[in-house]
């Protein structure tokens, strides 16, 4: 869990946001839980260091947002970067409500790789989906989704319908897309292409 420091922002619009970015600040907003939206100011350097510290847990962990000394629990729901400089430009926070169901992207965790028959025959596990977008209660966001590849031989794969999701977690899709595959060295590109094709079909 990280702590984000912010101040209330009174001005709005592109001009105000542009001036903030020049002075090393970024605009943000916090919303949800039946309360009014609040426009925020955050220090870009401090914000960037906090993001680096959280890594892949940023979007799945509950964080403290301290606004002018008052703290509340939030989730990070949106981040914007400058397309050229890669500097952070905006952040959205969602107030935490443990029972509210939300959509969130959760990392895929490949397990049982060492015992896979295909690995013993010189195969390679190709992870096609590194994260899954799921719906779950905000208070029960899984750290990751375990995907077992222990039974895979070369040419076989694990699809979304093959895995058991944690209680209360759902994936909404009509496509039985590939999550991971056991491929030979020459089959790596084919597995990646399969995942891209299935992703396009799901859209």
TrEMBL record:
Q: Which UniProt keywords apply?
A: Ribonucleoprotein, Ribosomal protein, RNA-binding, rRNA-binding
The coiled-coil segments of this chain are none
Annotated Large ribosomal subunit protein bL25 L25 domain residues: 5-93
GO:BP terms for this protein?
Answer: translation
Question: Which spans are transmembrane here?
Answer: none
- Asked if the Swiss-Prot or TrEMBL record annotates the protein with the keyword rRNA-binding, the reply is yes
Residue limits of the Large ribosomal subunit protein bL25 beta domain?
A: 102-183
InterPro entries linked: Rbsml_bL25/Gln-tRNA_synth_N, Ribosomal_bL25/Gln-tRNA_synth, Ribosomal_bL25_b-dom, Ribosomal_bL25_C, Ribosomal_bL25_long, Ribosomal_L25_dom, Ribosomal_uL5_bac-type
Short name of one Pfam family: Ribosomal_TL5_C
User: What GO terms fall under cellular component here?
Assistant: cytosolic large ribosomal subunit
Q: Which GO terms of the molecular function aspect are on file?
A: 5S rRNA binding; structural constituent of ribosome
Q: Write out the similarity annotation.
A: Belongs to the bacterial ribosomal protein bL25 family. CTC subfamily.
Q: Describe its assembly.
A: Part of the 50S ribosomal subunit; part of the 5S rRNA/L5/L18/L25 subcomplex. Contacts the 5S rRNA. Binds to the 5S rRNA independently of L5 and L18.
What task does this protein carry out?
This is one of the proteins that binds to the 5S RNA in the ribosome where it forms part of the central protuberance.
Its name, as the record gives it, is Large ribosomal subunit protein bL25
Q: Which organism is it from?
A: Magnetofaba australis IT-1
């Amino acid at each position: 869990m990280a702590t984000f420091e912010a101040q209330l922002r009174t001005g709005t619009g592109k001009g105000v946001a542009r001036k903030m970015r020049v002075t090393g600040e970024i605009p943000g907003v916090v919303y949800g839980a039946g309360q009014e939206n609040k426009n925020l100011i955050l220090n870009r350097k401090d914000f960037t260091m906090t993001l680096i510290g959280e890594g892949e847990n940023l979007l799945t962990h509950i964080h403290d947002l301290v606004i002018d000394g008052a703290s509340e629990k939030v989730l990070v729901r949106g981040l914007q970067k400058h397309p050229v400089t890669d500097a952070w430009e905006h952040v959205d926070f969602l107030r935490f409500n443990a029972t509210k169901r939300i959509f969130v992207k959760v990392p895929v965790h490949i397990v049982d790789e060492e015992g896979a028959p295909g690995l013993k025959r010189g195969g390679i596990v190709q992870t096609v989906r590194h994260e899954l977008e799921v719906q779950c209660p905000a208070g029960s966001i899984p750290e990751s989704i375990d995907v077992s590849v222990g039974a895979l031989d070369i040419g076989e794969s694990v699809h979304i319908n093959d895995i058991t999701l944690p209680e209360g977690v759902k994936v909404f899709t009509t496509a039985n897309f590939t999550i991971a595959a056991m491929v030979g060295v020459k089959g790596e590109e084919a597995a990646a292409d399969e995942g891209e094709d299935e992703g396009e079909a799901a859209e």
